[in-house]
Each structure stands twice: as structure tokens, then as C-alpha cells.
Design a protein that fits this description.
Layout: H1 3-14, H2 20-26, H3 31-43, E1 47-54, E2 62-70, H4 75-86, E3 91-99, E4 103-109, H5 112-125, E5 130-144, E6 157-160, H6 171-182, H7 188-195, H8 199-211, E7 215-222, H9 224-227, E8 230-238, H10 246-255, E9 259-265, E10 271-277, H11 283-290, E11 293-307
Antiparallel strand pairs: 1-7, 2-4, 2-5, 3-4, 3-11, 5-6, 5-9, 8-10, 8-11, 9-10
Helix pairs in contact: 2-3, 6-7, 6-8, 7-8
Length: 314
């Protein structure tokens, strides 16, 4: 992958609403060149969609990670299941895997009872085609930038589901938020026209949502296959006496260039990391040499079919 593309991907996944003028400055290119390269990558589906990072816990939501296996792995069955899962508003993430499980799915619901109702309906509908392998409620997530794409790292993190103080939003704020969730790079003037609110008010609402950490940023989903990016989701369990090392492990994930996400969960495994790389990495060898790993489960990603951070109102 060329260096200018690496830089562009880093900056665009760091801020999916960045202007082409600012993007050009960041990657040492003219605005025209940056705009052409970005639009070319979008047109060819190398960059698939932008996303608004919403901390759903501020609205009282909980997150649950579910692993599914297909009984029948035929293409038609797989497509039917993906299409159905895509239509479920409380499912914010669908990742197809080639090892570990067939699908890794994340639900966002008001409570575990609501999750159970939705999940049971899906299981019942596909009882001949789909099996649930595991269910893990999520405690907290740290998302990091794609530092493996650049030489100098940015170790800032976005913490989701950590601060559980609820936030109230007005009807107008809710409308603007939903538009940004539907299309995070939508122009302010177009949002104003859609929600019938003056442009200046939309600008102020957006800033307020960001200032109150309801919106924690903007990112973009890229096609890992087309870029030759290897992606793994690794579930980890530490030994009983090793649990005290979780904090030092969290610090390790923050400074490892290939780890782009670290989560704490409840269940058989305690931790989850997402690893991306442009070449083979022996990260598990390194982790096991430095931390008291009792067991682990590696899932190799095939394709991300859906990725949002907040349910879209129907």
C-alpha cells in the first residue's frame, strides 16, 4: 500500500468528517489531490461508509456481543441470514469471520431483557440455520486509531460504555443526531433541510452533542480485503491470580500499533482485542509471554457487513 493512501486512511478513519482541505494538509497533498484520491477510494468501495461514534450508554443502552455459527454454510443461506440481521435496528455490527465463528454480532438494547427478546426471535426464525455459540455482555470499550498505518503514533483512545451518566436530549437534538448516525459525513446544510431546523441551530446542536461527549467522533469503515489488511478478534481469559494485571494489559493495548480496540466483557472470557496488520503478526506469542493468559480464542475476519454505533430510529 502506498504511503499517501496509508496516511489518508489513518486520517479519514480518525475523522470521517474531515474537510478535503484539512485532509490534504495532513497527508502533504493539495486539496484537489486529496479530494480526488478520497473520492476514487470511495467509488471503488475501498472506503465503504463513514460512521458517527455515539456513546450509547449515555442513553441507557447496553451492549452485548454474540457469536453465531451457521448450520448450513451455503451462500444463499449466509446471504439470507446477513440480510435479516441487517434489518434489525438493535444490531449495530455484523462481522463475518473465516475462523472461530461464522458471525460476530453486536446488539445495542435498553436492557438485557430487551436483548433476550430480540435475540430469541432471531434464533427462533433461523433455528434450522443458525446456532448461538456465545453471548457476552460488554462492560467498556477503548477504541484506538489505526497506528499501524503510520510511523508516528497517536495513542489517544475513545472510551465507550465507561461513563454511565445519562444525558437528556431535546427533540431537535435527537433529530440531528439521527441524521448524523444515518450519514455521518452529511453536509450541515442538508441536515438542516431534512430536519427543518435553521443551519445555525444545527451547527450549535452538533457542537453541543460533541461537547457533552454524546458524539465522541467520526470514523470510516474500510474494505480490509481490498487493502490486504489482516484483522483478528481475540478473546482472552487471564488466570485468577493474573486478573490484577488487566490494567497493565489495557496500557499495553493502548501502545501497541496493531491493536485498534480493547474491551472488557462478562463471561467465559474477560477481555477482547481487535488486531489489524499489513503483514503477519505474532501478537499472541508476545501477549502470552508477558501476561497470564489462561485461554484464548482467535477469530479471523472475512468481511464487515454492518458497523454503526447507535440504533437508527425506524
Amino acid at each position: 500500500m502506498k504511503n499517501n493512501i496509508k496516511k489518508l486512511l489513518f486520517e479519514y478513519t480518525k475523522n470521517g468528517r474531515i474537510t478535503t482541505k484539512e485532509l490534504g494538509r495532513k497527508i502533504n497533498a493539495s486539496q484537489q489531490s486529496a479530494s480526488y484520491l478520497l473520492n476514487s477510494l470511495k467509488k471503488k468501495k475501498y472506503i465503504e461508509k463513514t460512521a458517527t461514534i455515539v456513546d450509547a450508554v449515555k442513553f441507557g443502552f447496553v451492549s452485548v456481543i454474540v457469536g453465531f455459527n451457521l448450520v448450513d454454510t451455503e451462500y444463499a443461506t449466509k446471504k439470507e441470514v446477513i440480510d435479516e440481521l441487517n434489518e434489525v435496528s438493535s444490531i449495530i455490527s455484523i462481522e463475518e469471520c473465516k475462523e472461530g465463528v461464522d458471525f460476530l454480532v453486536e446488539y445495542i438494547t435498553q436492557n438485557l431483557s430487551s436483548f433476550n427478546k430480540t435475540h430469541t426471535e432471531i434464533v427462533y426464525k433461523f433455528y434450522k440455520k443458525l446456532r448461538t455459540k456465545f453471548i457476552y455482555p460488554l462492560i467498556v470499550t477503548h477504541e484506538y486509531h489505526k497506528n499501524y498505518l503510520i510511523r508516528t503514533t497517536d495513542d489517544a483512545d475513545n472510551i465507550l460504555f465507561g461513563d454511565r451518566i445519562l444525558r437528556e436530549v431535546t427533540e431537535k437534538e435527537g433529530k440531528v443526531l439521527q441524521e448524523l448516525v444515518r450519514q455521518s459525513d452529511k453536509k450541515i446544510i442538508d441536515i438542516a433541510e431534512t430536519v427543518k431546523i435553521p443551519v445555525k441551530s444545527v451547527v450549535n446542536i452538533k457542537r453541543s452533542l460533541e461537547k457533552r461527549n454524546i458524539i465522541k467522533g467520526y470514523t470510516a469503515a474500510i474494505n480490509n480485503q481490498k487493502f490486504g489488511i489482516e484483522r483478528q478478534i481475540i478473546f482472552l481469559s487471564f488466570s485468577s491470580e493474573g486478573v490484577k494485571k488487566v490494567d497493565s494489559f489495557a496500557e499495553y493495548t493502548r501502545h501497541n500499533k496493531n491493536i485498534i480496540k480493547f474491551s472488557k466483557i462478562i463471561g467465559e472470557y474477560q477481555l477482547v482485542i481487535v488486531v489489524e496488520s499489513l503483514k503477519d503478526t505474532e501478537i499472541m506469542k508476545e501477549i502470552r509471554a508477558n501476561f497470564p493468559v489462561e485461554k484464548y480464542l482467535i477469530m479471523k475476519s472475512e468481511k464487515i457487513h454492518k458497523k454503526t454505533y447507535f440504533p437508527i430510529a425506524e
